[in-house]
Design goal:
This protein has 13 helices and 12 strands.
Length: about 325
């Protein structure tokens, strides 16, 4: 008998479908709420951490639900596998679990399409100056984008995409449909379709002079944290743009503010920040041609179902003793 740890909400939503996916009598449910209230170790063998557990948590503001789930996981000595809903596994607890021999699997790929769509929408909106037009509309001002104020054509512009996982590859494909050039940046310079060129992280500054758009969609790691900084922005063309749908710590926020205020960067779409929620006093809220979104680039009504599909696939693999999909130990 395998004991599955999950939230009471997840059991209500998916419990019946999980039960019919395994032979009768081979799996039991344990809710995080029950396990947290009980004394002593948890009996969980596997765990499924769904979105409502993390809810509105951020690295600096974990919610009670997340703290509670973490506490149960930590007191589960027989835990062998944890499925999480994000595409990245940067939180310290995941490293601690892996050090114990627990397999941690992500939902990489489940949000690739929605994040790519958000990025595509942002590229078009910022390039076509929609934030400035919306501001003019609020002021009831008729301000045509004519002559030197006209937007550049996107066709022929170059996007340097940092991160070549499912999200980065989807972004590259969509931008290619607009006639844009794409250069990928990843751990190695191994070619990745559909990018015309791929370089390793340490070669980023070699391609930044071509970057009309710097798009961040990579995991947070010692290599990528702070990779978008003042030196990187200085290497980019005047009037370039920044998009961050990765993690807040990938970009140095004060450097981002400085280059947007100076006009070195002409616009940005920022979905993630060093500290979340973004401070109400941050200048980013009021900068022209900047789109701020509250870490929602991946959200859609179908997202949870896609994540659940990955969990069911991994549950079948776990029971069969097969390699798990999106095993963090194998993602590099």
């Amino acid at each position: 008998m395998i004991t599955l740890l999950l939230s009471s909400h997840a059991q209500r939503i998916w419990g019946e479908r999980i039960a019919v996916a395994v032979p009768p009598g081979t799996l039991s449910f344990l809710t995080a709420e029950e396990a947290l209230a009980a004394e002593g170790p948890s009996a969980a063998d596997i765990a499924f951490m769904t979105r409502e557990v993390t809810g509105k948590s951020s690295p600096s503001h974990p919610t009670p639900e997340l703290r509670g789930f973490d506490a149960v996981v930590e007191k589960s000595p027989n835990l062998k596998w944890l499925q999480i809903h994000p595409a990245g596994a940067e939180r310290p607890i995941y490293r601690q679990l892996r050090a114990r021999g627990v397999k941690v699997t992500t939902a990489s790929g489940a949000t690739a399409v929605t994040v790519a769509h958000s990025t595509l929408g942002a590229v078009i909106a910022i390039n076509r100056r929609f934030p400035l037009l919306a501001d003019a509309q609020r002021r009831h001002a008729w301000e045509p984008r004519l002559a030197e104020r006209s937007p550049r054509d996107l066709a022929g512009q170059c996007a340097v995409i940092v991160g070549m996982g499912p999200i980065g590859r989807n972004i590259a494909s969509l931008l290619g449909m607009l006639g844009m050039r794409t250069i990928g940046v990843r751990r190695t310079a191994e070619p990745v379709e559909p990018c015309e060129r791929v370089v390793a992280y340490e070669q980023l500054h070699e391609v930044l002079p071509q970057a009309d758009w710097l798009i961040l969609c990579c995991p947070a790691s010692p290599v990528t944290r702070g990779i978008a900084n003042a030196a990187a922005f200085a290497a980019m063309p005047e009037g370039a743009h920044l998009i961050n749908v990765a993690r807040g710590e990938i970009a140095v926020e004060q450097d981002v503010i400085a280059v947007l205020q100076s006009g070195k960067l002409a616009g940005a779409y920022l979905d993630v920040f060093e500290r979340e929620p973004l401070d109400a006093a941050s200048p980013l809220w009021d900068l022209p041609n900047v789109l701020v979104s509250p870490h929602t680039a991946s959200h859609s009504l179908g997202q949870n179902e896609a994540i659940f599909g990955i969990f069911l696939d991994n549950l079948a693999r776990f029971r069969a003793g097969q390699a798990l999909r999106n095993d963090v130990d194998n993602l590099g």
